[in-house]
Automatic annotation (TrEMBL), chain A:
Transmembrane segments: none annotated. It comes from the Bacteria. SUPFAM superfamilies: CO dehydrogenase molybdoprotein N-domain-like, Molybdenum cofactor-binding domain. It comes from Sphingomonas natans. Residues 63-177 form the Aldehyde oxidase/xanthine dehydrogenase a/b hammerhead domain. This is Xanthine dehydrogenase family protein molybdopterin-binding subunit. Keywords: Molybdenum, Oxidoreductase.
TrEMBL record, chain B:
InterPro entries: CO_DH_flav_C (IPR005107), CO_DH_flav_C_dom_sf (IPR036683), Diverse_Substr_Oxidored (IPR051312), FAD-bd_PCMH (IPR016166), FAD-bd_PCMH-like_sf (IPR036318), FAD-bd_PCMH_sub1 (IPR016167), FAD-bd_PCMH_sub2 (IPR016169), Mopterin_DH_FAD-bd (IPR002346). Residues 1-220 form the FAD-binding PCMH-type domain. SUPFAM superfamilies: CO dehydrogenase flavoprotein C-terminal domain-like, FAD-binding/transporter-associated domain-like. Keywords: FAD, Flavoprotein. This is Xanthine dehydrogenase family protein subunit M. It comes from the Bacteria. Pfam families: CO_deh_flav_C, FAD_binding_5.
Amino acid sequence: MSDNKLADAKAAVQGAVQGVMMKAIAVAPDSWIPGGVPDPLIVHQHGHVGRSLSRIDGPLKVRGAAPFAAEFPMDGMVYAAVLFSTIARGRIATIDAQAAEAAEGVALVMTYKNAPRMKPMPGFGSNAKAAGGASLPVMQDPEIHWNGQPIAVVLAETQEQADHATSLIDVTYEVAPSVTSFAEAKGVGVEPGLFMGSPLKIEIGDAEAALAAAPHRIDAVYETPYHTHNPIELHAATVAWQGDTLRIHDASQAVAHMAWSMGHMFGIGEDQVHVTSPFVGGGFGSKTLWQHQVLAAAAAKLVGRPVRIMLSREGVYRVVGGRSLTEQRVAIGAGADGVFAAIVHTGISATTRSNAFPEPFILPTMSVYGAGSFKLEVDIAYVDMLANTFMRAPGEAVGTFALECAIDELAHQIGMDPIEIRHRNEPDKDPVKGLPHSQLDIAKAYAQGAEAFGWNKRKAVPGSRREGEWLIGMGVATGTYPYHRMPGGAARMTLTRDGHATIEIAAHEMGMGTATAHTQVTADRLGLGLDQVTFRYGDSLMPGVVLAGGSQQTASIGASIIAAHALLVTELLQLAGNDSPLAGLKPDEVGGRDGGLCKLDEPERFESYASILSRAQRNEISVLGEAAKPLELQHWSMHSHGAMFCEVKVSTVTGETRVSRFLGSFDCGRILNPKTAMSQFRGGIIMGLGLALTEETLLDTRSGRIMNPSLSDYHVPVHMDVPEIDVIWTDIPDPHTPMGARGIGEIGITGVGAAVANAVFNATGKRIRSLPITLDKLL
Amino acid sequence: MTPFTFARAGDTAEALRQGERAGTKYLGGGTNLVDLMREQIEAPTALVDVTGLSSGIEETGGGGLLIGAATRNTAVAEHRLIRTRYPLLARAILAGASGQIRNMATVAGNMLQRTRCAYFYDEAARCNKRAPGVGCDAIDGFNRMHAILGASPACVATHPSDMCVALAAIGATVHLQGAGGARTLPFTDLHRLPEGRPDIETLLEPGELITGVELPALPFAVRSTYRKVRDRSSYAFALVSVAAAVDLAEDGTVREARLALGGVAHKPWRAFRAEAALIGAQPSENAFRAAAEAALEGAAPLADNAFKIELAKRTITAVLAELTGVSA
């Protein structure tokens, strides 16, 4: 099947899935699904949820005792090193590995000539459990698809021996024509982009005409560059074949997807692949399936020994995709009252034929503002490069840069406060879907943020505040990220006679505090102490298909636990029988308290779990709950928002920008654990500062090669670039989500680029529409 | 990394004996050489650790200092006499790297560190510094970080050191020891411009060892500083840096000035013309701007780095204004 046909087929499958979901709307109740009422935990205000609990894995981590993927020893293990192609397109003409094979300590050199036969990587969307960043074959033929593609793997007794031996491999290529510049790719032609199977194209009314007729207009092009993932933990796996079972210690944000995908490639069942990932040192969308895990498993099979692969930092840049570049036109037409008559947000993003993943930058524009008309579209241009992928808030991170800068430009033109113009365009329902909002209090977030930040001290005239050589300015922007909940959530809940509950779910801890927050949630649901709950996760043998992505893991786990809890309570009531104070009660009439069940409105009707289980002569009960279908998304427009406030100083001598203050005021539903949430928000904002000021992957347009594959040359913010960051939130629960919460992993990065750029404009009067805002643009 | 032998030299004579063998490199803190070995850019067959040699800081007669070649960068930056007599040097070193790297890096190693040009670091690219004669992919590639002064068609790389910019301004002298005996070189002559052979970066003879660097007495350097302009607040090489010292006469005019630039050339760039232009000038923004114009005379930008010319001029002007109390 050609790549285009594959994409078409993918779209068709996803379209069908969505069709089924749409039909289900009619029969679903108008609220959070099981029970048809809001999650009772929302009104439960005096438990563990909402308290700042330090992460339960903290002591392990500070002692260095939390094992990461490259830290699992295995008997007889060899170390892998990868050799990367140096051309973008063509084929390997000759590859001579004799010297490498003869080098000290080398156990095996694998190339396309001797690699075991495998199916191509199943790219995201090709199956519900596909986890691949691209849909290419892995080391199966001499074809080269991008500059940096793995072309050989060396296994040796030590990492140093393996690294050295890769330098002894001689490769020659037959070079084929390639398209490695975005400009050239656009010239070849663009196509409409698809995201999750749906076209990224929306037209409501005649936006161009409304724009042309509007008294106030902004029409500008904004650019964002390629970005590379830089989690502190390098992508790694320790892999062994144990009989017919493939054992993988992975760094993963998708263990169930990973097991299925690896099984698919190697022609074995997903139950023959055991993937665990107890700790992940940052994911951000990158800790999925890339070639390194496949190469390690293939090489392990050939050599008959366990293999550890840990990509070098350069290796991550060559093998693991990042965020693609965008070129976005935003045009807004408005009246003197600031009300939007038209929003045009169109543009082009680069992608490859093996993944066809456009950076969906119009996503924020589809929900944040009302307008008389819309024209939104993302087109794609094909570049011969490493497949791009999800990177923290794909779409929103860079889409809000363009949209929120344009709104700032418009506010300036009209002479209106940038917060006021946003208020005036707050939609009363979802502007595209027409659905009511599940919960929307962005106005409150703005009011609280403006007060805390001292927004009233901002001078409306750019360039009017100066201290020494530094011009000072303030900017604001709206951040937004949707609530997602993907199908497939499931959890096992086991309650023992001593009143201890264990949750098992194939979910992930990438540093966010997953285990901590869900220990709190489970303790509250069951009426247990924190030490009476064990949250187990990160194992593909556990229930659930839970992607730690799309900021949906909290909702997915929450819904799974709700389902399991409902089953558990039902079973407990049955076991309690007629001799219990709980006799005759229905599951939705009872809740957990003090290590047992009670009638919700009559808490003295109570029996402890220990008592129920003892009387029933049971040591434990165990249930497997499957999360309800995510129908809430069909009923409501569900989005989190942030009011992002930034103050910058810009040197009149050098053009250097220093962010002096930042405040994020969030409206994200209920916050489960303020301490871990604070870290999530701050981390997102810091990543946003990198997006605004420093980060850019340099893809040489002649060779298609990434030229800054290191933390030295790819500039993420250093400590000195990051000021004190204040974070506040409305803490208003969303009545239509589990726990009243919406995921917060991604929203922190959204709006930051624009808040910084708008502050730079306020400081200097210079409007920078191309990220990153490096000093040369301000000289 | 290619396998290599390792030996620790007990004294200079032993180091020189070992250094004579082909394929041998002297090893200081290893903060650059080891990186280059990991990247297969350098592949010595033998390393001679010279960190056990000459690491003291001694006063010379007349107010100067002699710094042993193996002195750690941290020790130099923290030294009381460096901080009081040569603040530009202390500041340059502190701007140069993280504490961990400064703790390891030696003075001579810092001098001999190699360019961070991305094309030099990538074996897939053409680089005349790595393989003389093959061509340069930086000239038409990403060259935002590259040279605007003294470059050649063969090479547009810059010298990455901050410390060396201060040493150039101070007018230090390098002490060398080789098979033919000891000699000295003005620091500003140690590094070459690329011309046709960018692979030859210094005037060191094969096997020759830097044993120390001597700072001359420079009383007016008490009024000196170093300003580094870069893409983030730390852990980035200079786009432009300026080391400067100004001596004002009683009448307020400039008696003497020292000015050197980093991030602009294949070597630490002493701006002799600008220094000459400053002598006798009444401190003013105009006078400093004129000196800056002189410093950048002949600057030739590449596609991505034209901004460095104006950036350097502004930074020079601001640094001189700061040193002389002229308000910008």
